[in-house]
Amino acid sequence: MSKVKEVDVLIVGAGFAGLYMLHLLRDKQKLNAVVLEHAGGVGGTWYWNRYPGARCDIASHEYSFSFSDELQQEWSWSEKYAGQAEILRYLEHVAERFNLKPDIEFNTKVQSAVFDEGLKRWSIKTEAGEVYSAQYFIPAVGTLSSANIPFIQGQNDFKGDEYVTSRWPTNGVDFRGKKVGIIGTGATAIQAIPVIAEECEQLFVFQRTANYTSPLCNGPMTEKNEREIKANYQQLRDDEQESFGGMPYKQQRPSALADSPDEREAHYQKRWEAGGFNVWLGSYEDILFNEEANKTVADFLRSKIRERVNDPKLAELLCPEEEQLFGIKRQPCETNYYEAFNRDNVTLVDIKSAPIKEITAEGLNTAEGSYEFDILIYATGFDAFTGSLFKMGITGRNGRTLQEYWADGPRTYLGLSVHGFPNMFTITGPQSPSVLFNMPLAIEMHCDWIADCIKHMNAQNLLEAEVDLPHEDGWIDHTREVADMTLFPKAKSWYMGANIPGKPRVFMVYVAGGPAYKKVITDIADNGYEGFKFTQ
Ligand code: FAD
Ligand code: NAP
User: Fold this and answer.
1) Residue pair 416/521 in contact by the 8 Å Cβ criterion
2) CATH of the domain spanning 4-146+383-535
């Protein structure tokens, strides 16, 4: 049995969140902090999701750290929306630049984290049997880091090669001359399909639910653009902080219903041509609140699919159904997605009307036909928000596990803290703006708040912080009330846990927007961390 390693802070995960948290606590507060990371390198999402076509869909100069002006001035992005390899290089650069790697243990999976009430410390065990004792436990394990691989009859019988998009091999996959099947048509598959289609012999796309998408409109970062961004970076970052989703869209109008049909069409067209989330978060404010307004944008996006797909029957299959609202599932962005279905080597298989029956040695059978392929890809998403936390065996006071406490859905205060789990802080946890905010900025907001709270405790020799139950209950009610003002809870989405059989159906994001949330958490800190009980 190895010796217990004593640290002030134990952080799990070396994505955006773990890297910045380590920098803040180790370098600014001189705490003894360590990061444990399952992967062989830094990057988190960008380490694991190496599937063809993977890239961000918030512009890279915005989807990046803002905490160091030197960092943002010295780094150059080659494209507006960088690909996975470039984002990974950026995070490698961050780790080198701030000398973070010496305090990260790679290839180290945390198996359990148990709060010891006597010691008032967390005891954290790794898969290899190492034990750490820490005053503060910070699972920075990501909201989209636990793959969802659905159970399908006969799954083990397949004789070809199988891949999961979020566990893609580091040396890539050679699709040349291969027949490929891909299950899923979410944001991941929508990026991967056009790229794989260009390389493989034949691609079968198994679609259960068609998605609304809009074009990414990627392109090279020109020298002129870069100069302008860098000259005005602080203003841009301020604008991001003041916008609902952490991306300033200055053309957004209040109501789709207030404009005439012609004005509306012209406005949607302009937002569509601007790319990224311009249609979703930058066209009209009421499309996420009012079904009639939502229908106008849904109709616009369906008309775009019909324009781009040559075969009308195929176009209808790719169109989300009338009753499907737009944007209350995370909106994917696409590059040549619909054009891929005009290719001779791409076949769309509708598994809604004829579901998959079983996977076979050679491929799969649906209720209507058999498909043979050499490679099977699961682009089936994530057990979002709670998946990686639950897999870590987190146990708080009185031996109660996080799974038990969250059996009916996540319970947090501000998405940062959980009653019964003292000195544990989550980053972009459920019931915070999280995945509905530009995530590096959401992460910075949380890490800054956590670091300030720890500083406050250390300055006053406080050993333990725990949120009280009434404040946690109050926050849960508030997040629900805010969500119920929007259309979001109407979707069968991973925001709602609806993609995982048996998972409670609750909306897991605080959807009042980043600025409102920042005011709440700042006020709470300014009021002496209202809702927290501190003990010495
Ligand atoms: P992650 O990057 O997920 O890192 C968590 C780390 O924790 C992982 O490295 C994992 O290995 C580690 N870990 C988990 N459990 C354990 C354990 N038990 N032991 C040890 N280590 C563990 N967001 C945006 O805002 N804009 C985008 O354009 C965008 N694009 C995305 C594209 C893809 C393909 C995906 C999947 C997500 C995207 N996201 C995007 C969301 C993205 O997850 C976040 O932006 C961000 O990268 C999350 O960083 P993180 O550090 O919180 O978590
Ligand atoms: P996802 O949106 O959850 O999509 C999963 C897909 O798999 C859906 O089409 C789903 O169909 C299908 N599926 C799941 N289980 C299935 C089953 N048993 N049988 C048949 N089909 C099944 O997952 P994702 O595409 O990985 O995206 C998740 C999130 O990651 C995104 O929403 C986004 O936040 C992030 N992401 C971002 C980018 C980016 O552009 N920056 C790229 C990739 C991912 P149903 O819809 O019918 O359930």
Assistant:
1) yes
2) 3.50.50.60
